[in-house]
Specification:
With 227 residues, this protein is α+β, with helices and mostly antiparallel strands. The chain contains 8 helices and 5 strands. It folds into 2 domains: 71 residues, no CATH class; 132 residues, Bacterial polysaccharide co-polymerase-like. Strands 1, 2, 3, 4 and 5 form a 5-stranded antiparallel beta sheet that branches.
């Protein structure tokens, strides 16, 4: 078959090709439930230790202090995603009168870093509680960092500093839901095209001279379909 023949088949059976798409669209519309509203809080933290002051000792222009800052940033970025950290934050929330399971907190935290700055992302369904939870995360990092890095136990001052005030913003709908709808429509359309070609090859009717010619018959005349 030529491309023009494929186009004629689809044009003849267009309703059958679109039928699965219509069915899928109807089922999706009936079963659709709006996604739960979620909020995201992004907090940037800087890390660093106060410089050691030893008279007569060359500090390499504080090279090792900056290097330590980057090590801390990379390490704390991973610490905030651990179960131990989530349990500590859950305990802080419990002390404030709110019971939140540590597993739920751990699943809501993501993080990233760049040099001496790391970012903690918190996704939470309640905006007010997200602010309180973000405050507990910031407090745990700035007040209890020695629990995760024993080297910081004798450090003067906190090595972690919060740079952003926790502000919840509505999170975008999950990309997975949009991709799921596109995948459903694509599969339904492919099934519809397959049905159209199956109907064409199973159709016993002679609709034009090409059907006869494909059967090996010679056409000697044709009655026009229009008046």
């Amino acid at each position: 078959m030529r491309l023009i023949d494929y186009a004629r088949v689809l044009l003849r059976w267009w309703w059958l090709a679109l039928l699965p798409v219509v069915v899928v669209a109807a089922i999706t519309a009936i079963s659709y439930r709006p996604p739960a509203v979620s909020y995201q809080v992004a907090m940037r933290f800087s890390t660093g230790l106060l410089p050691e002051r030893a008279p007569g000792v060359y500090t390499y222009d504080r090279y090792y202090e900056w290097l330590t800052s980057e090590y801390l940033t990379n390490g704390l970025k991973d610490v905030v995603r651990t179960g131990v950290f989530a349990e500590a934050v859950s305990a802080r929330m419990a002390a404030a009168g709110q019971t939140i399971p540590a597993g739920q907190i751990q699943g809501a935290i993501a993080s990233d870093h760049a040099q001496s700055i790391f970012v903690v992302y918190l996704n939470w369904p309640d905006a007010a509680q997200a602010v309180e939870l973000a405050g507990a995360i910031a407090a745990e990092l700035s007040e209890n960092s020695a629990a995760y890095w024993p080297q910081l136990a004798e450090a003067p001052g906190s090595p972690v500093r919060l740079l952003d005030r926790p502000t919840p913003v509505p999170a975008a709908p999950p990309l997975r839901e949009r991709l799921d709808l596109i995948a459903r429509v694509a599969v339904a359309l492919a099934a519809g095209v397959a049905l159209a070609f199956a109907a064409h090859f199973l159709d016993p009717m002679v609709r034009d001279r090409r059907d006869l010619e494909r059967a090996g018959l010679r056409v000697i005349g044709q009655i026009p379909s229009h008046r």
